Amino acid sequence: MAWRLPPLNALRAFEAAGRHVSFTRAAEELRVTPGAVSRQIKLLEGFLGVALFERGNRELKISEAGQAYAAALNGIFEQMHGATSRANARCMCIAR
Length: 96
Description:
The structure is a single chain. Helices cover 65% and strands 8% of the residues. The protein has a two-stranded antiparallel ribbon with strand order 1-2. 18% of the residues are buried. The chain is mainly α and 96 residues long.
């Protein structure tokens, strides 16, 4: 089965922006520019075919679809963090 998944950077940008409801704060967390976060989210919105944020004059609001998607992604990112922590704890390191 071929999986068609959105780009990981776009997911990371959206997850951070969704938590903060701010492209600027997400950019600070990810150490990129707010413009880069905005571009990644537009890419993700195009991939999904749905608006994840409602953009107004100097105002950003997460859409209903964005809230649902952010909640699902948050759980997935938590699972990935846990799996990574467990792998690191077991010292599954490649000898250099």
